[in-house]
Amino acid sequence: MKLKIILVLSFLVMKIYSVTAQNNPAIISGLIKDKTSGIALPYINVVLKTAKDQKMLAGTVTNEEGRFTIPAVPSGNYTLEITSIGYKTKSQKIFVGTLSDFLDLNSIELEEDINTLSEVVVTSKTSEVSAKMDKKVFSVADNITQSGGSVLQSMQSLPGVTLHEGKVQLRGNDKVMVLIDGKQTALTGFGNQSGLDNIPASAIEKIEIINNPSSKFDANGNAGIINIIYKKNKQEGFNGKLGISSGYGALWDRKTNLPSIRSQYQMTPKMNPSLSLNYRKNKINTYIQADYLYTETLNKNEFVTRKYDDGTVINQQTVRNRDTHYTTIKSGIDWNYNEQNSFSFSGLFGSEKIIDNGDEPFFNQDYSQRLRLWSFLEDELKTTVMASASYEHKFSQPGHKLNAGVNYTYHREDEKYFFTNTLPASVGQDSFKLLSDEKVVDINLDYIKPLKYGRFETGFKFRNREIPTNMQFFPGQNSPIDANAGGWANYKEIIPALYSNYIFESDKIEAELGLRLEYVKLQYDVNPNHPTYKSNGYNYTEPFPNVRFGYKIDDKNKITAFYNRRVDRPAEVDIRIFPKYDDAEIIKVGNPALRPQFTSAFEVGYKKTMPKGYLTTAAYYRIINGTIARIATTVPGSTLIYNVFQNADKSTSLGIEAIYAQEVTPWYSFNINGNLYQNTIDAFTVTNLYPIPSIYNGNRQQLVSGNLKWNNTLQLDKTLKAQVSAIYLAPDVVPQGKIDSRFSVDLGIKKTVQKGKGEVFLNATDIFNTLVLQKEITAEGFRYSSKDYYETQVVRFGYSYKF
Q: Using one digit for the tens of pLDDT, what is the confidence trace for 320-353?
């Protein structure tokens, strides 16, 4: 009897174990590589079929590193089928057992299909909008119309992006945080963006636009984040790419100069040689990317008419002819010590030499009398050095890892200005020099733990930043320069921050809940003899939450909702106490009493995937408290205007954005994207302290604005591709006025040569010469309008070769 009971219980236990084991699914993963080169292959189709009847069980594509993962696979026999244009289909038998939750297939090599490759050059690519709809990713190489230019220029056709006065805006807002390889650097600025117009596009692999960042990112940048990814090959052995591009801009005078000044730059040459080298063997990958960019540019050609309430009218022009030499070298080494531990070390050197020669004549209302001629020479050298080290530890569980890193940035700004101040009765020689050293140390620690239905991530970041600055003025006879406003200033900032994110995912639901807690202490010490400003600073401890929710209606339709809170701290140049005299009578001044602006942003989105295309839409609403803006005022008895940064009151932005991309035929595809928004600036009152207190009362302003872009790509034959892009920017509101509409059309053509190893291109921007920046400002006691006919029409051509 006991024996029978024991046998029955044993049978039941075995049955329960068997059922449990059969219902315990596994995760299949692997890495797809090119058999010849050993390079990892992104966006390869991977399908899992049952071995018995070849029914499809699951499918996926490899990520940017060539890796794929198929979750929740029951035990049994299967066939893994791997396909991609240009490669032979590969099938591999797989058995999924019951003893392991993970099955790693290691590397799977694909062999090129010579017949297919001889007929097809262009391969399919993944959607530009991520599955989470939190970012958009764009390949710089795909932007033919802007090849050979700068990173800033290559962005102007991207969805939601506009350019204004050398800055990039997202959805009409220039408070954008710019990263390089996921890090903030002095090359592009730690506060507001800078330097994008001098980074060669040839050095960049792709650009990520993140409108709704998670708490893992720094909290600043209420408009979003732009992440610039430098090129870095991972191909086995020694390989590289050599390129050269050239071109000409300012092909003719768009607007004739006012009398008695030097000529505008015309037929301005451009030159951009580049070289990237990479060597990968066993556990070591080393790389170097070197670029040199030389440009002559009609950087500014602005005509301004100022009208004062007392009847005074002043007409002026600013011509700025610019020569720029920009050198960047980025190098590094990746060391996979073993399967669990890897190290990366990288360094970047950037040198930007700028020579500006310009004239600024001032005339009376009917141009019968020249009131002043302000001629200038700017000699500026900016030097940037960056060094980074990072460590990654992978735990036994896939995706379970710990990252640590340190990043050091040094940036020197050495600027000298020389002026000739010609008045009807005198000639004076003026000058000033500025020396600023920026030193920043960032330390970060990040931990990621996969969960059954998602993952948990947390981390810590600490920043120490110091910027000592010295400005010396040397005024001449009857000078507009305020010699007493010079001296020294020292900017000190420490920011420790903690963050945590929880991500949940099921077959229908995606959710992310994050919180970043940030403490900021900023101290701005200034020369005690300064006539207006004294030492100042601020500190705060603030939470910055983010929420993301996604619902998959089916495989082709998805809706999302986002919320985040962000901050924009004033950049050091925004609070810099020294007036800048690149314009003799419209003078820009910082404000050390400037405080951060805080933004709450809400967004809902929808994405529909269609055969050979997609549609995404998003509606968003932003509320900004303490809006940072330049406010122009004057003082009694003077026609000089002072533009000072101030915190206005509240502003809001309500808008909708849509992107529709479609391959119509094998030879024609397009994407059209638009952004329509209403900007509102509430009434506010501020006091400009420099040079003497001046109160400004701003009325409530509201304007509907937006932009529309149409990008067309034509595959003319197997190796020849053309592109046409049209951009329209509607009028927009600024705190004291508005910006008028703009329109441009760009063309480009690219041909693959030398069996795919070489490439030549030709493009032209603003072919109808219609892109003119027009602005109207109304303040208390005066108003002015401006039209800037700066260089927008450029023809470029170039060649590159991969080896």
A: 999 999 999 999 999 999 989 999 999 999 999 9
How far is Cα 272 from Cα 763, in angstroms, rounded to an integer? 15
Q: Annotate 662-708 with three-state secondary structure.
A: EEEECCEEEEEEEEEEEEEECCEEEEECCCCCEEEEECCEEEEEEEE
Helix (H) or strand (E) holding 118: helix 114-119
- E-strand stretches of 583-667: 586-589, 597-610, 613-625, 628-634, 641-647, 651-665
Q: What is the pTM for the complete model shown?
A: 0.79
**Which among 310, 146, 138 is positioned nearest to 209, based on CA atoms?**
138
Q: What's the confidence (pLDDT) of residue 99?
A: 53
pLDDT tens profile 624-653: 999 998 999 998 889 999 999 999 999 999
The two three-digit tokens of residue 732, written as one number: 């927009």
d(CA 69, CA 380): 51
In this predicted structure, the answer to whether residue 249 has a pLDDT above a threshold of 80 is: yes
Q: Where are the alpha helices (DSSP H) in 329-436?
A: none
Helices assigned H by DSSP within 191-263: none
In whole angstroms, give the CA distance from residue 591 to residue 644.
7
* CA 733-739-743 angle, 5° bins: 125
- Tokens for 476? 């001449």
Three-state DSSP at 129 gives strand
DSSP bridge pairs for 702: 680
- Beta-carbon contacts of 50 under 8 Å, excluding residues fewer than 6 positions away, are 57, 76, 77, 78, 79
Query: Each residue of 156-182: pLDDT tens digit?
Result: 777 777 777 667 778 777 788 888 888
The Cα–Cα gap between 217 and 479 comes to 47
Taken as a whole, the chain contains a residue count of 803
**What is the residue whose two structure tokens read 């009028």?**
731
Residue type, position 466, single letter: E
Q: Write the CB contacts of 746 (distance below 8 Å, at least 6 apart in sequence).
A: 145, 146, 157, 723, 724, 725, 726, 727, 763, 764, 765, 766, 767
pLDDT bracket for residue 462 (50, 70, 90)? very high
| Token pair of 222 as six digits | 């209420």
**Does residue 116 register a pLDDT over 50?**
no
pLDDT band for position 8 (cuts 50, 70, 90): very low
Centre a 10 Å sphere on the Cβ of residue 630 and count the other Cβ atoms it contains.
17
What is the rounded CA–CA span in Å between residue 211 and residue 226? 9
Q: Is 93 exposed, middle or buried (0-12, 13-18, 19+ CB in 10 A)?
A: exposed
Q: How far apart are CA 185 and CA 483, in angstroms?
A: 33
Phi, psi of 521 (to 5 degrees): -125, 115
Separation CA 477–CA 475 (nearest Å): 7
The helix (run of H) or strand (run of E) holding residue 539 is: strand 536-554
According to the model, what pLDDT value does residue 100 have?
58
CB 164 within 8 A of CB 792: no
* Burial class (CB within 10 angstroms; exposed 0-12, middle 13-18, buried 19+) of 636: exposed
Q: pLDDT digit string (tens) for 203-248?
A: 788 888 888 888 988 888 877 888 888 877 666 789 889 999 999 9
Query: What does the pLDDT read at residue 141?
Result: 77
DSSP collapsed to 3 states, 451-502: ECCEEEEEEEEEEEEEEEEEEEEECCCCCCCCHHHCEEEEEEEEEEEEEEEE
The rounded distance, in Å, linking the Cα atoms of 227 and 209 is 7
Could you give the dihedral angle defined by the CA atoms of residues 193, 197, 199 and 200, in that order, rounded to the nearest 10 degrees? Answer: 150
For strands 26-34 and 102-110, give the pairing: parallel
**Distance between CA atoms of 49 and 30, rounded to whole angstroms?**
16
For residue 533, give both structure tokens: 């400003």
In terms of C-beta density within 10 A (0-12 exposed, 13-18 middle, 19 or more buried), how is residue 272 classed?
buried
Q: How far apart are the first and last CA of the chain?
A: 80
